Amino acid sequence: xxxxxxxxxxxxxxxxxxxxxxxxxxxxxxxxxxxxxxxxxxxxxxxxxxxxxxxxxxxxxxxxxxxxxxxxxxxxxxxxxxxxxxxxxxxxxxxxxxxxxxxxxxxxxxxxxxxxxxxxxxxxxxxxxxxxxxxxxxxxxxxxxxxxxxxxxxxxxxxxxxxxxxxxxxxxxxxxxxxxxxxxxxxxxxxxxxxxxxxxxxxxxxxxxxxxxxxxx
Length: 217
Ligand SMILES: Cc1cc2nc3c(=O)[nH]c(=O)nc-3n(C[C@H](O)[C@H](O)[C@H](O)COP(=O)(O)O)c2cc1C
Fold this sequence. Notes:
By secondary structure, the chain is an alpha+beta fold. It has six helices and six strands; from the N terminus they run ααβααβββαβαβ. It has a single domain (3-204), classed as NADH Oxidase.
């Protein structure tokens, strides 16, 4: 599969079979993650690969509670069309299903971001070089794209951060040293890969100056 196909068909897969994930495929995904760019090439992330059913289910209990709390915070949605409403409802149902079943997904990969000083100060003040998570999320997306190219599904999730302290304790990581940048279930999906709906990119492109609409095609 070429890179463009893999990128365009990587999306949140939230329903998985029980089929085990071969270690050599996981390693390829982790190699792809490690190849991602990071500020100053610091490669700050650690990967906790969870295969133990006990640990997965402990994380799943936390995920479910976090998800239920998050759902209660969601505002009542307003839709521009019936199509938008149906898309939203499908995603909502799939997210709820994942919250109920995530413990059964064969592998979870947690991307840990270290709590380290980042950025600089000089006599003029803060020297803003961007945020540290900007050096972790490219690795997460590389991982997901690599997985897709190997026929594995993933879902990029962060809701477990609602109860991050509890989740870090489950995986034996120190709350003072790490935060959870992403929590990725990995497995063979039961649904099909495909291109997910997005806004037309032309609505977000500006040519040379903000507000100037492009004619790139
Ligand atoms: C930073 C981030 C956090 C996310 N957190 C969650 C999450 O906690 N649970 C979940 O089910 N999906 C989560 N998602 C997945 C998004 O809902 C998903 O990418 C979006 O709906 C588009 O899905 P699609 O590519 O299948 O269209 C997250 C995605 C990102 C990038």
